[in-house]
């Protein structure tokens, strides 16, 4: 930054005017993110409801969270859900991309089919899947009965409810990882494949030695993006199971919503939100770390 | 730039769409917020409540009627999803209070304690034709806090036993045209087993999935019938009692013996009962009208075979049923004009006048004279329901946060009854969680 | 050569089966929406008996509330898209091309905003809007979305990639900064605008939590919240077929948008998320 003095003097008056370009955004940014973030942190140290702050309680909300079995269960549930969905989304997405990465017309039709559910909203998705899972005349129950089986109450079974929500989510979200992998596959230099063909390498070898290493970074990015997304699970259990049965499908975000809006404990909910924020921040920093290494290669 | 032009055009037209309404309407605006569902498709054009059936239909028809009779009032009807308290709380926090809201009696104290409701004065009550002495005990208890009245009750509801008489007959549980109901836990199990043996169907149809209120109603009722104390003080719950244990044990036994349908959510249970999947559907007064209508249609499992009874006394100590009720309350709003308040009072007076129409839903009327009226008694099944006026008891008014508590009690009961948790642990967890909430008040 | 070809065919077969599984739930709902409520109440197996009706759709159109919700969703999504494009382009140009005090620091702070999830700010934001009495307006549904730092980040990168010679030549012609931005550079960023616009539109259309707590008035419901409201209605009298028709109807506009702009949407989503 060796700028000569006259140049600096020349720019200074223009400098403030230049800031006008970023000012509109910055105002919104401060009002919608900076201020609420600071307020949220402050709220998490208070006892308050939607109608006002009652008392300053310091870190009491956080110690209460650490002792609250229901909250701890929601943390576990959230991690469990991430574990159920992220590997599946990543691997299925990768598999689909590998098979559908070709110019043929049928491949393009199939790509459309796998992406189409992504544009539906969570309320439509949950409505659809409730009608698939319900043991009373749901799609799976009807199919099971036709095959001589008996219906299973997926959403009312402690052990099956979360996997059922995971299946719903995978159905809903599979488009994004597939598209990301497809984009990455397009970037793999053609000449690498040419070279492999000349070497008479098997398909498997081409896949493991060329394709997969070339999209390594995308793989990591997909994992991290999906972790961040799935950590924020909310609508599916709120609409499909209300967090039940026996608390088995209540994620952190639903806990925040119910505590703040139903139980009127806004400070406590804000504290839970900070905990979730910390978790996502760690994942986001991992993403930044991965993304910034791009330039090293 | 085509995209930008297209966007601009779209936004302009969208903005125009948004602004086209509400011009040159000088009528007084009355914002009414309610649950009970939306059914404009079916009842949008009906303004005679006698032609409507069910809570949603009758409510819609009543409000249509009010609009017709009061052309100088513009009613803005805001239908929220059940029970709408999350939204109401958010609205009140943002000073966007409706003029009148439907609220359960059990929830009033939360809002009242925060100064969010406006009480009805003695003069108001007289003006709308609902003086306190006209109200039943349960209805008056539902709206009275600190000797002031915080809304117009429109009904008292209680869990009932809706009965498929065709199946009961098949099971040999009909005597003199009346269903034979159990008078003790032992009789209940015995009759239910007999029912199952003779009909091949479970005795109960129950809504147990994705819903907790039904569990809570059964639990509260069973403990209250044993004279058990649920809340020794307004801010302390006591659920680790023998009474509570016996209550859950009974429903767990019913579940374990498969004397009930399992895994049905609310709509599946309603459909199940209508389709004759079981003998007894324990659900509230609000279904009486719907099920009676079903029994009048031909060729259906309920045809000509529907009866309804108060929750029977299964424990020897006291004949009582946990109850609640629906109330119109008026959120406090410093910006409400006298004209708007006047319009709200006319709306309340209208509902007080049409108490009988609303009672056609199956809910218990709030006025003693309506319960005693020949008109009400002439409605189907109402003789059987009349004793509820004495036996329906809400939780003590001092207990706040009854709505989130209901969910917790239901969740833990469900866990115990389905066998996910031992009963003692479920009760301990229930007590701890509820007391945690109450201690934060 | 047969072995790899076989495994390739197995893979394709698996994917086709997967595609069928993707479609079956949608077809199921479509079929349910074409049945009378009374028949479904008795038994959902009646789906297969061949008696279909459009009554549910007729009721839906007669009822009209779903149109109100679609209009709200359109207003909010288009408004947010336009706002994000304008703010992000201005800010992106500013951060990429212009010197002003604190530029670097501000940009880093904005980047930090990328890591802030909705959950961390939503409670306080709700309080803020309450105090400002903004809830139940279209503005309240649009405003929070305008703060997403992603657009600024994307546009800054894009402006940086445009050769500086273009504006320097214009500066010599005494063009103002705004003229350069508006006349010269902005047209060059159309691909990025499309990416950002599509991405914003889709996420605004499907936004759930914020509209759920901010739009509490039925007149202000977006489609997502409106559908949820009918879904969670206890003792709801509208039948299953009607609900399903509503779901189909609600899904249609966005599906049509998707099929029309498919290529761009896929590119946009890949481009946007990959950065």
Question: What does this protein look like?
Answer:
The complex is a heterotrimer of chains A (297), B (441) and C (275). Chain A has 297 residues and is mostly helical. Chain A has a domain of 179 residues: MetI-like fold. Chain A has 15 helices and two strands. The N terminus of chain A is likely disordered. Chain B starts with a helix and ends with a helix. With 441 residues, chain B is of the alpha+beta class. In chain B, helix 10 packs across helix 11 and helix 10 packs across helix 20. About 2% of the residues of chain B have low confidence. Chain C is mainly α and 275 residues long. Chain C has two domains: 54 residues, no CATH class; 169 residues, Orthogonal Bundle (MetI-like fold), CATH 1.10.3720.10. In chain C, 76% of the residues lie in helices and 0% in strands. In chain C, helix 4 runs parallel beside helix 7, helix 4 crosses helix 8 and helix 4 crosses helix 13. The chains are: A mainly alpha (297), B alpha+beta (441), C mainly alpha (275). Chains A and C meet through helix 1, helix 2, helix 4, helix 5 and helix 6 of A and helix 1, helix 4, helix 5, helix 6 and helix 7 of C.
Mean pLDDT of chain B: 90
The CATH architecture category of the largest domain in chain C equals: Orthogonal Bundle
- Report the top-level CATH class of the largest domain in chain C: Mainly Alpha
Largest interface: A-C, 99 and 96 residues
Reading off the top of the CATH hierarchy, the class of the largest domain in chain B is best stated as Alpha Beta
Task: Count up the domains of chain B.
Answer: 2
CATH H-tier superfamily of the largest domain in chain B? Periplasmic binding protein-like II
Number of helices of chain B: 21
What is the number of domains of chain C?
2
Cα Rg of chain B: 23 Å
Radius of gyration based on Cα positions of chain C: 24 Å
Low-confidence stretches of chain C are none
Percent strand of chain B equals 5-15%
Parts with pLDDT < 50 across at least 5 consecutive residues of chain B: 14-22
Strand content of chain C: under 5%
Element order of chain C: H for helix, E for strand: HHHHHHHHHHHHHHH
Tell me the span between the first and last alpha carbons of chain C: 39 Å
């Amino acid at each position: 930054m060796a700028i000569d003095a006259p140049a600096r003097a020349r720019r200074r008056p223009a400098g403030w005017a230049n800031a006008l370009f970023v000012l509109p955004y910055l105002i919104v940014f401060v009002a919608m993110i900076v201020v609420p973030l600071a307020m949220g942190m402050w709220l998490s140290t208070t006892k308050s409801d939607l109608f006002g702050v009652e008392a300053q309680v310091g870190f009491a909300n956080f110690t209460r969270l650490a002792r609250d079995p229901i909250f701890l269960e929601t943390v576990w549930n959230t991690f469990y859900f991430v574990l159920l969905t992220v590997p599946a989304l990543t691997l299925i997405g990768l598999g689909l991309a590998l098979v559908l990465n070709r110019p043929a017309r049928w491949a393009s039709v199939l790509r459309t089919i796998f992406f189409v559910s992504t544009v539906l909203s969570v309320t439509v998705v949950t409505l659809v899947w409730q009608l698939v899972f319900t043991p009373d005349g749901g799609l799976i129950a009807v199919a099971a009965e036709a095959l001589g089986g008996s219906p299973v109450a997926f959403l009312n079974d402690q052990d099956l409810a979360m996997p059922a929500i995971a299946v719903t989510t995978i159905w809903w979200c599979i488009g994004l990882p597939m598209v990301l992998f497809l984009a990455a596959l397009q970037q793999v230099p053609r000449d690498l494949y040419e070279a492999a063909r000349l070497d008479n390498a098997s398909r498997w070898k081409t896949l493991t030695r060329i394709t997969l290493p070339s999209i390594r970074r995308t793989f990591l990015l997909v994992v991290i993006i999906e972790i961040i997304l799935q950590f924020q699970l909310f609508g599916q259990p709120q609409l499909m199971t209300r967090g039940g049965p026996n608390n088995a499908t209540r994620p952190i975000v639903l806990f925040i919503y119910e505590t703040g809006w139903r139980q009127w404990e806004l400070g406590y909910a804000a504290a839970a939100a900070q905990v979730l924020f910390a978790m996502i921040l760690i994942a986001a920093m991992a993403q930044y770390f991965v993304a910034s290494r791009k330039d090293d290669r | 730039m085509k995209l930008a032009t297209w966007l601009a055009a779209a936004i302009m037209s969208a903005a125009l769409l948004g602004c086209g309404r509400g011009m040159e309407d000088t009528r007084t605006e009355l914002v009414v917020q309610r649950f009970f569902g939306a059914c404009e498709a079916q009842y949008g054009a009906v303004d005679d409540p006698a032609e409507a059936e069910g809570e949603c239909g009758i409510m819609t028809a009543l409000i249509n009627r009010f609009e017709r009779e009061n052309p100088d009032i513009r009613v803005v009807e805001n239908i929220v999803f059940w029970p709408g308290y999350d939204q109401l709380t958010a609205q009140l926090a943002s000073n966007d209070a409706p003029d009148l809201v439907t609220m359960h009696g059990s929830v009033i104290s939360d809002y009242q304690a925060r100064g969010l409701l406006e009480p009805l004065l003695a003069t108001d009550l007289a003006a709308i034709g609902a003086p306190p002495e006209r109200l039943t005990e349960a209805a008056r208890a539902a709206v009275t806090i600190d000797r002031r009245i915080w809304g117009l009750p429109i009904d008292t509801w209680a869990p009932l036993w809706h009965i498929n008489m065709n199946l009961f007959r098949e099971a040999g549980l009909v005597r003199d045209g009346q269903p034979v109901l159990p008078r003790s836990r032992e009789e209940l199990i015995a009759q239910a087993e007999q029912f199952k043996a003779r009909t091949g169907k479970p005795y109960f149809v129950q809504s147990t999935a994705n819903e907790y209120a039904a569990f809570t109603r059964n639990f509260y009722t069973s403990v209250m019938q044993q004279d058990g104390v649920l809340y020794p003080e307004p801010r302390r719950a006591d659920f680790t009692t023998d009474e509570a244990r016996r209550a859950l044990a009974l429903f767990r036994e019913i579940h374990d013996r498969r004397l009930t349908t399992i895994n049905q959510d609310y709509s599946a249970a309603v459909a199940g009962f209508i389709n004759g999947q079981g003998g007894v559907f324990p659900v509230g007064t609000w279904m009486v009208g719907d099920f009676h209508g079903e029994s009048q249609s031909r060729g259906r499992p309920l045809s000509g075979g529907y009866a309804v009874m108060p929750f029977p006394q299964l424990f020897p100590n006291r004949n009582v049923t946990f109850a609640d009720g629906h109330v119109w309350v008026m959120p406090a709003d410093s910006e409400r004009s006298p004209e708007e308040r006047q319009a709200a009072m006319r709306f309340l007076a209208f509902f007080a006048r049409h108490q009988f129409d609303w009672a056609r839903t199956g809910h218990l009327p709030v006025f003693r004279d309506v319960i005693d009226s020949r008109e009400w008694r002439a409605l189907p099944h109402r003789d059987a329901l009349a004793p509820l006026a004495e036996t329906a008891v809400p939780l003590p008014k001092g207990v706040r946060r009854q709505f989130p508590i209901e969910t917790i009690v239901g969740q833990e009961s469900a866990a115990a009854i389905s066998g996910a948790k031992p009963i003692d642990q479920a009760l301990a967890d229930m007590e701890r969680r509820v007391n945690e909430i109450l201690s934060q008040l | 050569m047969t072995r790899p070809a076989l495994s390739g065919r197995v893979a394709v077969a698996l994917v086709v089966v997967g595609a069928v599984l993707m479609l079956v739930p949608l077809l199921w709902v479509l079929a349910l929406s074409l049945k009378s409520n009374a028949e479904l109440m008795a038994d959902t197996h009646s789906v297969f008996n061949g008696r279909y009706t459009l009554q549910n759709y007729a009721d839906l159109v007669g009822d009209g509330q779903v149109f109100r919700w679609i209009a709200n969703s359109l207003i909010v999504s288009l408004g947010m898209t336009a706002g994000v494009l304008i703010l992000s382009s201005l800010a992106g140009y500013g951060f990429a091309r212009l010197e002003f005090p604190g530029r670097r620091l501000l940009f880093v702070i904005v980047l930090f905003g990328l890591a802030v999830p909705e959950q961390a700010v939503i409670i306080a934001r709700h309080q803020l809007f309450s105090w400002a009495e903004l809830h139940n307006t279209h503005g309240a549904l649009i405003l929070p979305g305008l703060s997403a730092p992603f657009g600024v980040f994307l546009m800054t990168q894009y402006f940086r990639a445009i050769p500086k010679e273009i504006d320097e030549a214009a500066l010599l012609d005494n063009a103002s900064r705004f003229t350069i931005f508006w006349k010269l550079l902005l047209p060059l960023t159309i691909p990025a605008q499309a990416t950002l616009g599509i991405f914003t539109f889709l996420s605004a259309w499907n936004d759930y939590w914020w509209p759920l707590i901010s739009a509490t008035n039925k007149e202000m419901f977006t489609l997502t919240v409106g559908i949820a409201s009918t879904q969670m209605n206890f003792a709801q009298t509208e039948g299953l077929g009607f609900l399903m028709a509503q779901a189909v109807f609600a899904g249609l506009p966005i599906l049509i948008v998707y099929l029309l702009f498919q290529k761009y949407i896929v590119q946009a989503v890949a481009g946007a998320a990959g950065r």
